[in-house]
Amino acid sequence: MGILKVEADKAFRRRGAWLLLAFAAALVGLVEYLMLREQAPARHYALTLLLSREAARSLGIFAAAILGAWTAQEYSWRTLALLFSRGTPRGAWLLARWLAMLGSLALVVAMPFGVSLTVLSFYAGGWPAQLQTDGARIAATVLQTAVAELPYLGLALLLAVAGRSVAAVLGGVLGYALVLEAVILWFWPEVGRYLPAALSEAWLGGGAGLGAELAGIVGYALAFVALSWAVLRRQDLGG
Amino acid sequence: MVQAIPKTQPILKARGETVLRVEGLSKRFGGVLAVEGVDLEVRRGEIFGFLGPNGAGKTTTLGMILGLVEPSAGKVELLGEPVRPGRTHALRKVGALLGAPAIYPHLSARQHLELIAGLQGGVSRQRVEEVLEQVGIARAAHRAAGSYSTGMKQRLGVAMALLAEPELLILDEPSNGMDPSGMKEMRELMRSLATQGVTIIFSSHILHEVEQVCDRIAVIHKGKLVAQGAVRDLLARGDGVRVRVESPEEAALALGGLAERAEVQGEYLLVRGLEARAVVTRLVQAGLPPSEVVPIEGGLEELFLELTGGGQ
């Protein structure tokens, strides 16, 4: 439990993280405000949910890359050696770091829903009536969107542990998610349908069922975490 | 100011028992054998100097002792428990500062100590404040560590190593970046901790500092241990005599086989491993009476340079 608290403290004591989150929230709020101004009130609620989901997905990928980069910083700062030389089990650290990353990702994914609905409430002079019946569904959407980002978070962790470099993580995660996946999906759709982007799209579009898509998404994430463990457990950290 | 504050829980264990035993330790990085068959034994309560030129394998060896680097061969036993990467319970009783201090630039010194306290457990808030005072960074404890000078970062590294009242303290170049008074305070702190039963493994390039504080030393060169023993015994190896003779080359030949080493230095001959009286007697017998005889006490620097071939 000690290491979990340490990792949570480290994550949430980053002033830069809060500034980035605040900047992203301001951006989402501005887009929501401008979008609602141009649309008929009847469409506001549906548009708000659509914008929230799309913003959450995009921000989730960037968040995964940044969280991975912060993990890689532990190598350049040599702070991993600081933790392990005090007898902290490597597996416990990896698990705690993964959980801290999950918590941070959940916060980032939930933020656009909170901000957009708040802007809508200011716009409409009160919270939308649909929230009373839709609250659980929105919460499920937030959870679904966070789960859909897990493969990218796992990839970020693997690149951080194996590459030990901020540039490798940022380049690797963003390059894969924004370029490589799109290229494969375009040129080799039969291969692309098994990649995280296509699986997430299918899963988010098909409701919250426990289908093959969800198994694929979770499988990717677990495989990346397991590979990270395989690299870390015998990794030389001296010098 | 680095202060020696009495520990709240003195270590009441037998001095002289083995705290660290290293046997046949080797590490290969690809085709490079960085450490080869190193054996070390460190006893409770002693200050053990671990010396070697840059790239000799010191940090790799210390990394293996701390479970950060997996040995290619050999074993490390720390406080009776084998060390291996992954998990070693005994490491909870070890404080270490390995190379430049590892710090989170965005956290303050106090937050660093709280973080270590949370990790190790059983460390009170009072102990955190006590250690901040002890290493002399209490007044800057609220500032982000990224803004600290090299010396202050070093003090923070020492504070983190001391926090959990370790039985074994491993300090790799602890006075790096410190001013002379800080270096003196660090030596006093080490001596004070050793009297309380804390075992210290200390690595430094400042050899007179090592000579002043260490009970025993080991010297590593090109990955191999080239000397290990009590400082006094090793320094005695460097004792010798410098004689001025008309023909130092002939004098060196005359002493051949008797002295451990005879080295011509201009019109002088430096002789090691032979007492002054024996040197003079031999040279007089050979018809080369010296005009000047100066006994020389070996220093750690000379010994170090001799063992490491000039530090190369």
TrEMBL record, chain A:
The keyword Transmembrane applies. It comes from Calidithermus roseus. Keywords: Membrane, Transmembrane, Transmembrane helix. It comes from the Bacteria. The chain crosses the membrane at residues 16-36, 56-77, 98-124, 136-159, 166-188, 208-232. Signal peptide: none annotated. This is ABC-2 family transporter protein.
TrEMBL record, chain B:
GO terms for molecular function: ATP binding; ATP hydrolysis activity. Gene3D superfamilies: P-loop containing nucleotide triphosphate hydrolases. Its EC number is 3.6.3.-. Keywords: ATP-binding, Hydrolase, Nucleotide-binding, Transport. Pfam families: ABC_tran. Residues 20-247 form the ABC transporter domain. InterPro entries: AAA+_ATPase, ABC_transporter-like_ATP-bd, P-loop_NTPase. Coiled coil: none annotated. Belongs to the ABC transporter superfamily. This is Putative ABC transporter ATP-binding protein YxlF. The lineage of its organism: Bacteria, Thermotogati, Deinococcota, Deinococci, Thermales. The gene is yxlF_1.
